[in-house]
């Protein structure tokens, strides 16, 4: 059987082939150099952006705003999901407002967020938190409802306080669902953060994409697009690594 390393190596063949074709096609007179750059020029632009610190500063801006929005949205969404998962009365009370607000696109809140917070990090954080809140809440609600009732009965019989029930019984039972919620939340947070910067917030990776487009620099546009994808992949891969280590450690303990 083919090893995992070989599978990964073969997985790189298609992207490398496409890049080679792209580079070869750029030598043609018909190649639209005003709108599309070639891989060598994109790599050169990315190298310059890294060297002059632009990549570092803008990436940090996006990660801070997106990260804080993720933490806020995930925390509130997780608590709301636990509440409506445990108490059906809480869901009945909130079902109307949840079904009204959940379909609202996060970017539709930009005018309101601008009125409340103006340009800057607070505006971006609020929009990201709104976007992250809903998927986390829905996943946690389903996870809590699927917990074995006997676990809750044991916690009740032992007369644990509500906080102890949450920490010692509920959260350990939904660890995998928490990681799923975080993965989805990270993807949503990053997409929304970059989108907000493209549309209205003059900072971060999204804003640099707009500047490159306005300046008619396709090499920079592609360089920033590549970097955005690389950052998103790196964050997701890091979370996968933590998840595998955590659950493999738990299995070894057992």
Q: How do the strands and helices of this protein lay out in sequence?
A:
Layout: H1 4-25, H2 39-51, H3 54-86, H4 88-101, H5 110-117, H6 121-145, H7 149-157, H8 162-173, H9 175-199, H10 204-214, H11 218-253
Can you describe this structure?
The protein has 254 residues and is mainly α. It has a domain at 56-217: MetI-like (MetI-like fold). The chain is 82% helix and 0% strand. It is built from eleven helices and no strands.
Quick recap:
The chain is mainly α and 254 residues long. Helix content is 82%, strand content 0%. The model has no long low-confidence stretch (mean pLDDT 81).
Question: What would CATH call the homologous superfamily of the domain at 56-217?
Answer: MetI-like
Radius of gyration, whole Å: 23 Å
Q: Give the distance, in angstroms, between the N- and C-terminal Cα atoms.
A: 30 Å
Total number of beta strands:
0
Roughly what is the average pLDDT, rounded to an integer? 81
CATH 2nd-level architecture of the domain at 56-217? Orthogonal Bundle
Which of globular, elongated, flat, extended, rod-shaped describes the shape? globular
Low-confidence stretches: none
User: Count the helices. How many?
Assistant: 11
| Residues in helices, as a percent range | over 70%
